[in-house]
Amino acid sequence: MKRYIKSLLPVAVMGMVSLTSCVGDLDVDPEIDPKTNVTFQADPAFNKVYANLGLTGRQGPSGAPDLEGKDEGASGFIRVLWNSNTLPTDEAICGWSDGGILGMTTNQWDASNDFINLLYYRLMYGVSVANHYLEKTAEATDAESTVRKAEVRFLRALHFYHLMDAFGNIPTPMAISNELPKQNSRAEAFALIEKELTECLPNLKDARSNTYGRVDKAAAWLLLARLYLNAEVYTGTAQWSKAAEYAKKVMESGYTLAPKYAYLFMGDNDKNGAQNEVILPVIQDGITTFSYAGSTFLIASTRNADMTANEGSWGITEQWAGNRCRPTLIENFIPENTEAVTKDVGNATKMIAIAKDDRSLFYSMDRKLTNDKIGTFKDGYSCLKWNGLYSTGTGGKDSKFADTDVPLMRAAEAYLTYAEATFRANGKKSNAEVANAINALRTRAHAATQQAYTEQEILKEWQKEFYFEGRRRIDLIRFGMFGGYSNKNTWTWKNGVKDGSNFAATKNIFPIPTEEMNANYLLKQNPGY
């Protein structure tokens, strides 16, 4: 744990604008010298637990990284989760080859893959930051400290959740220590996360009563719902009824669906109505709270210059031309004669009209549907979902970095969780409750509703609602459609083959990084690596 905490003490004394007031931009005060001032200060230390979600270091987008010896721009929480849960799936493909991206894109990673390492260390760093705060505030019993500690316990549990989901059997250190952390089974990690969430829940503020950007009870309910929805994968025992129970709590919590789907991913999503749906945003601000790993990455990596003629501005000048769509994603929205009816259609307005679904935010002008060459950006339709523009049509505060907050948790997840869990608990039979939950999302998207849904239609709805949000891998595994030679779900360049081929189910979890294995003899590598 000392290796994860190398730069933590200096961070804890930086004068970040407090999350305890107003919106909570997490900028830093250069007047404080961490080399001379090492006194623990509760406010900035508390902010740092949240800042780990949206920032990559202590100086700005580069120069003083949290993770020493790593590529700071690629090391952020949002970017590592997105890369690991999106690029290995039927959803997105990236033309870059640096840092292990090609291995992620073609399902040919190993324990030395840079992005798998970044995922592991960013999550463990987040655990360290939380442990540090909880250790230093252990004796604080006032009302505000009690609430804050509950929020930090939630955020630590969130990091443990992503570690367990990605790496299976993991260490779960609950304190800063010189001792090597032992490895827990996935089932043990599941039980710990469940315990932490249920214990912190009573001390969290009620749903929609906390400061924007901070955790409330609805966030804990939603993470519990996610935990139970995937319980069969994590422990071997399904818990569909519990998943539906906690999802229902979120649906009835006062959070409501945003008036327009696109508003959720725009530069003013903290005030355009999307904030009523977003339960836990990762705050981004082009002036004070920015990095190369948050919403700027999600926007810039999907754009290049030729798109402005038909689509217009996307709110920032960055255009990195890397991530674009695999054909399976587009065909989910437009299943028949896809390329024939979308060729050179161009902007999202026309793609929405063809798909008859407001969530169809794609760009096809001068692009192939197919990903013939991994490294060619125009081999694949572009995704327009993430946007730096405000819903008013104006740009953001900065020309380079976006103001778009990243909706890490939003109420729509509860609707689909409730639908799927109810469907499975009912013997894989649809009923009115299943249909109503899904139809609420489809109605918002002006898509046709149905009286019943099949298992595969539910999986398709997960993708339609959450594509390019960094969760597809989790859903495919739960539906038995990711790793495993018996499944028939293929996509372009799956397992490094252009037309796709299956790979072993052992790749449903990632390998523990070689660096970590060498540092801790108590760890056992995951099967298949």
What are the key terms here?
single chain, 529 residues, mainly alpha, two-stranded antiparallel sheet, 20 helices, 39% helix, 5% strand, globular, disordered N terminus
Question: What proportion strand?
Answer: under 5%
Mean pLDDT: 93
Structural class: mainly alpha
**What form results from the Cα inertia axes?**
globular
Helical stretch count? 20
Helix proportion: 25-40%
Which residue ranges are poorly predicted, with pLDDT under 50 across at least 5 consecutive positions?
1-36
Order of helices and strands: HHHEHHHEEHHHHEHHEHHHEEEHHHHH
Topology:
Layout: H1 8-12, H2 42-54, H3 77-86, E1 92-94, H4 101-105, H5 114-136, H6 143-167, E2 170-171, E3 183-184, H7 186-200, H8 217-229, H9 231-235, H10 240-251, E4 278-282, H11 295-300, H12 308-311, E5 323-325, H13 327-333, H14 338-342, H15 348-355, E6 362-363, E7 382-383, E8 406-410, H16 412-425, H17 432-444, H18 455-466, H19 472-478, H20 514-519
Antiparallel strand pairs: 1-5, 2-3, 4-8, 6-7
Helix pairs in contact: 2-5, 3-5, 5-6, 6-7, 7-8, 8-10, 8-16, 10-16, 16-17, 16-18
